[in-house]
Design a protein that fits this description.
This protein has 411 residues and is of the alpha/beta class. Helix content is 39%, strand content 24%. The chain folds into 3 domains: 168 residues, Molybdenum Cofactor Biosythetic Enzyme, Chain A; 76 residues, 2-Layer Sandwich (Alpha-Beta Plaits); 154 residues, CinA-like (Maf protein), CATH 3.90.950.20. It has 13 helices and 17 strands. Strands 2-1-3-8-7-6 form a 6-stranded mixed sheet, sandwiched between helices. A hairpin with a 4-residue loop joins strand 10 and strand 11.
């Protein structure tokens, strides 16, 4: 069945907010047998929302709206759906009492404008929201299905999982999407596709998507399966891709590079410290995103200036004078210094020229050196990262994690 997602909110049309709810729902819908054909972002205008709903209902069997269910004057999703379907709304005394009870339990008096959250479109089923004040709604209309969900992710997710997915399972007829995702490191997009194209072109029924990211590439293979149909061809192609790419595949389960590196550190019993110059904490931030990273991460040193490199990581002034801050020698000294300063088994360092200024013919913008030291081995790698300042920094933090993974796979 075809599905569409409509994200409601004028803020989503600004450069400051991004619709991320649809990413979560797309994965869940595909797993439930629904093919997401279109995503729309629309502002808070009642007629704009209603027009988007009418168009979606002409094309798709399932339409899901997120946002616009709050208590303010510009929360118009309920009214827009009612207008698009030609239905009235009724204020539910039961929902109103529950709203008043929730506010009282928190020691607040409910404002008058919260009452509109108790408005139910005629014929709709109310979907309980245990985490917020805006319940969802489920409507059947002439063989089409419409779902209204709140915008906050925590609220949307719990309603989707507990109330929407069970309803969808009875509609899909057992159809589902089978897929495999490969996260790839160290292979450019063009080379990646050239290596696997001879494999996937032998499977014309399987859809293959090759994506390039700031740090890594991804390959997704997928096919829709009818009830009882085997996914053997997906498994077969997946095994061939894995065999062709080998250790360049760092995850087939959606793990990030920092999750993979963290898992390998924990399995090895090793601890890590980092020294960062041009990335100034971005590597440490990625590492500590992972729950339990304190088991293996000792800490980091932000040594942006030469003085900090000398005082905090013990880089010899002579090294900086002879080779410069952006050099293999300095990167190796920083890795040794981080390991020593924080008493870790492994030290990783990053030093480079993120730009836009500061480059030269000998050392261009984007030049970055990475160091690794474990007390016995000390090595460095040189890369010239493309993109603007932020891209250079992001790519550098990612590459340092990839370098760490390579090391941990060998010990």
């Amino acid at each position: 069945m075809k599905a569409e997602i409509i994200a409601v909110g004028t803020e989503l049309l600004s450069p400051d907010h991004i619709d991320t709810n649809s990413l979560y729902m797309t994965g869940e819908l595909n797993g439930a047998g629904f093919q997401v054909r279109r995503k729309t972002v629309v502002g808070d205008g009642l007629e704009d929302i209603a027009d988007a709903i009418r168009a979606a209902l002409d094309r798709s069997e399932l339409v899901i709206l997120s946002g616009g269910l709050g208590p303010t004057e510009d929360d118009r999703t309920r009214a827009a759906v009612a207008a698009a379907l030609g239905r009235k709304m009724t204020r539910s005394g039961e929902i109103l009492e529950e709203l008043q009870r929730r506010f009282a339990a928190r020691g607040f008096k409910m404002n008058k404008n919260n009452e509109q959250q108790a408005d139910v479109i005629d014929g709709a089923e109310v979907l309980d929201n245990p985490f917020g004040t805006a319940p969802g709604q489920w409507i059947e209309n002439n063989g089409r299905y419409i779902t209204l969900l709140p915008g906050p992710y925590r609220e949307l997710k719990i309603i989707f999982e507990t109330s929407v997915l069970p309803r969808l399972s009875s509609l899909s007829g057992g159809r589902r999407m089978a897929s495999k995702l490969f996260h790839i490191t160290g292979i450019p997009e063009s080379e990646l596709d050239a290596r696997i194209a001879p494999l996937y072109t032998a499977y014309p029924n399987i859809e293959v998507t090759v994506l390039a990211g700031t740090g890594h590439g991804s390959v997704r293979i997928s096919r829709w399966l009818n009830d009882g149909e085997s996914a053997a061809d997906i498994e077969e192609l997946g095994e061939k891709i894995q065999a062709e790419l080998g250790n360049a595949v760092f995850s087939t389960s959606g793990e990030t590079m920092e999750e993979v590196a963290g898992r390998l550190l924990r399995e090895s019993g090793k601890t890590l410290a980092v020294a960062e110059s041009c990335t100034s904490g971005m590597l440490g931030t990625r590492i500590t995103r992972i729950e339990g990273s304190s088991d293996y991460f000792r800490g980091g040193v932000m040594c942006y200036s030469n003085d900090a490199k000398i005082k905090l990581c013990g880089v010899a002034p002579e090294t900086l004078a002879e080779y410069g801050a952006v050099s293999a020698e300095t990167a190796e000294a920083l890795a040794r210094g981080a390991r020593s300063a924080l008493s870790s088994d492994i030290g990783i360092s990053i030093t480079g020229i993120a730009g836009p200024g500061g480059g030269s013919a000998e050392k261009p913008v984007g030049l970055v050196y990475f160091g690794l030291s474990d007390g016995t081995l000390t090595e460095s790698r040189r890369r010239v990262m493309p993109g603007d300042r932020e891209s250079v920094r992001e790519r550098s933090a990612y590459f340092a994690l990839s370098m760490l993974r390579d090391y941990l796979l060998k010990i």
